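thread: overnight batch results

M.L. [08:02]
morning all. the overnight job finished for the chain we discussed friday. pasting input first so we're all looking at the same thing
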Amino acid sequence: MSGAPADLEQHYNPRLAVTDFARHFEDWGRRSAQARGQMSGYLDVSYGSHAMEKLDIFRAEGQSKALLMFIHGGYWRALDKKDHSFVAREFTRRGVTVALINYALCPAVKVEDIVLQVLQAGAWLYRNGSNFGAPAGKLYVAGHSAGGHLSAMTLAAQWPKVAADLPTKVVQAALSVSGVFDVHPILQVPSVNVDVRLDQRQAGYVSPALMPPATDAPLWLAVGGAEQEGFQAQHQLMKRKWKKVVAGEVDCPGDNHFTVLDRLTKPDSPLFKTTMKMMGVE
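M.L. [08:03]
and the structure it wrote out:
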């Protein structure tokens, strides 16, 4: 997955391919503010001591059948959980408790620090989700872009090494949308790595495609049909490398790196239906 920096910039910088990307961010923020007014939940719950180690948890309507941890994207350096509340609305309506997590952003921290924060959030939800009405032992993860990468990392994690009280399988299954699974190409994407500051050692440490899955927990993969070559290649790489646990892939024809996220908000879309299937809520 090598290439010249100029080529990799074109393959891995979605803001070059989708010139109106700011409009999508504004739309997500508007819809998220509206969704927060419609859902019952708790905002800025601390899962750790860092100021960014907070989550918003929205209760399922009726009896909760599963707990979904959603991890936002932004190339590990941008965006916020509050920009993604809109993702939770339709899931809560259908009996899923949804937790949207924050994590510290690059360049203040490194990607490996973010991975550890995400695992800390998962451990907190595993221990405390039932306090919010979620069923014990039914924690699932979904993430978009950088969040897709981090979702895969939760399936590569050696959870008992995170904390002695954790079982081997904390996360029952995960969905990665438009993830990057071998992050080495990002070293040659100047517009991103100026903030992310990956080096060869760190890239190997946080590339799930170069690790074995830690358990038999299934992984679902999705990528927009109109996404750049880099994200398409990453999708195929993870499909090959983790073939023993990849449960399926979701076609999102015509979607770019930003519009693909909208599929998680549409109950009739294959992506939404697959997420519900993943959680055993159909």
